[in-house]
Amino acid sequence: MKQFWLSLMLAVICLTLFSSLALSQSVNGVARPGQIVIRGKVVCLDESGRRLASEHNCQQPSHRFGFDTSDGKFYLFLRSDSATAMFFDPRVCQRELQITARLDAEGQLEIIKVHSIHQGRLYDIYYFCEICNITAYAPGPCHCCRQEFELKETPVPEP
Q1: Neighbours of 150 (CB within 10 A)
Q2: Nearest to 125 by CA among 157, 86, 158, 159
Q3: Which tens digits make up the pLDDT trace of 122-133?
């Protein structure tokens, strides 16, 4: 009898563990979005989602950004992703980039990390104020001294 209760208890514990694992893998039958690493160039889109000419500066707040990958795929960035503020800088948009992002259920990107690529090497790309020693990920004035942030690129250390 004691062995029966132990077996039953073990079965309940296993069932609970496996069902919670299955629930964590999907929400309403939809697989959780994953993380991807892609290379390519930023594309500026107008309010309706049409691509703007490449020479057009993407500096209007109503613009949206997409990403053309080097293998021919296209992704949209989430409108709510504040990390896309970096793309208002035309110097960043002109570079080949490697984006590490979370891919949501609709196939849109939320930025985790942006690297630039020069001669096959990765570089951290960010804005920096030398006076205040402040790092930012969007162009504009320093939050402290109001001097313009400087765009910086530093090589990513080799593993």
Answers
A1: 12
A2: 86
A3: 999 999 999 999
Backbone angles phi, psi at 42, to 5 degrees: -75, 140
What is the C-alpha separation between 13 and 23, in angstroms, rounded?
Answer: 15
Which of 120, 138, 108 lies closest to 36, judged by CA? 108
Domain boundaries, the chain: 35-155
Task: Tell me the whole-structure pTM to 2 decimals.
Answer: 0.73
What residue type is 115 in one-letter code?
Answer: H
Q: pLDDT by residue (tens digit) across 43-72?
A: 988 877 788 775 555 766 667 899 999 999
Rounded Cα distance, 149 and 137, in Å:
10
Q: Six-digit token pair at 41? A: 């160039």
Alpha carbon separation from 118 to 36, 90, 122, 124 (Å, rounded)? 21, 17, 7, 11
- Residue whose structure tokens are 């920096």: 128
Going by their DSSP bridges, the two strands 64-69 and 35-45 should be labelled as: antiparallel
Per-residue confidence at 118, pLDDT binned at 50, 70, 90?
Answer: very high
